[in-house]
Amino acid sequence: MAKSLAAVAALTVWGASQVALSGPVARLSFDSQPGAFIGDGHSLTRTFAVPPDDVGALIPSRLPDGTPIEVQVGFALSEPPFDFGFVDFGNVPLRPGFYPDAQRTVNAAPGHPGMDFGFDGVAGGSLTGNYTILALSFSPDNSTLLGLRVQFEAHIDGQAPAVFGRFEYEADGVLVPEPALGTLVFAAGLLGLRGARRRNP
């Protein structure tokens, strides 16, 4: 049975001014369809900041030269807890672009990018969907995730109802101004086209 959210808010495009915080910050905004395992038809926008939340980023997988192919952001001590993960199993660097036919990382079939999404203790078993990495940056030595902005569509446990959302992480605690919604859609379309060309030369 889908779990309803206690806090319900309208889906919004994030603010137009920069906000500097003292530590890493993550921001999640999603719109779930009725019956979706996460959200059950509700919308939510939430910012997680250090302090008081426990927000961190990991780079679990790399190429032999150290180039990241996987990132994870989240942690259980945030309130509510959440986690995100994205990985390209094609043994190529993770980079901006469109990643179709994604599956949960732990059981992704060959040829499918990995994606993980959990919120407020709810994650489900299987996951399918897609994501578009709008921006991604690492430290010069590739040891630290500095920034990530991504749009995603997730279906949990084979459900038709989806969760559509956006996620942002900034290690320096500065929330980057977001462009207008029309610009976001246009930019995502360009990245999707470039990603498709990259995978289908």
Describe what this molecule looks like in 3D.
The chain has one helix spanning 181-199; strands spanning 3-4, 19-20, 25-32, 38-39, 43-49, 56-58, 70-75, 82-87, 97-103, 114-119, 127-138, 145-156, 163-170, 174-175. The protein has one domain. The relative contact order is 0.21. It has one helix and 14 strands; from the N terminus they run E-E-E-E-E-E-E-E-E-E-E-E-E-E-H. The longest helix has 19 residues, at 181-199. With 201 residues, the protein is mainly beta. The model is unreliable at 1-21 and 179-201 (pLDDT under 50). The radius of gyration is 16 Å and the shape is globular. Strand 7 and strand 8 (82-87) form a beta hairpin. The strands form four sheets. Strands 5-3-13-12-11-9 form a six-stranded antiparallel beta sheet. Strands 6-7-8-10 form a four-stranded antiparallel beta sheet, with no helix packed on it.
Structural class: mainly beta
Give the total of domains.
1
Report Rg: 16 Å
Q: Give the proportion of residues in helices.
A: under 10%
- Largest sheet entry: 6 strands, antiparallel
Shape: globular
Weakly predicted, low-confidence segments: 1-21, 179-201
List the helices and strands and how they pair.
Blueprint: E1 3-4, E2 19-20, E3 25-32, E4 38-39, E5 43-49, E6 56-58, E7 70-75, E8 82-87, E9 97-103, E10 114-119, E11 127-138, E12 145-156, E13 163-170, E14 174-175, H1 181-199
Parallel strand pairs: 1-4
Antiparallel strand pairs: 2-14, 3-5, 3-13, 6-7, 7-8, 8-10, 9-11, 11-12, 12-13
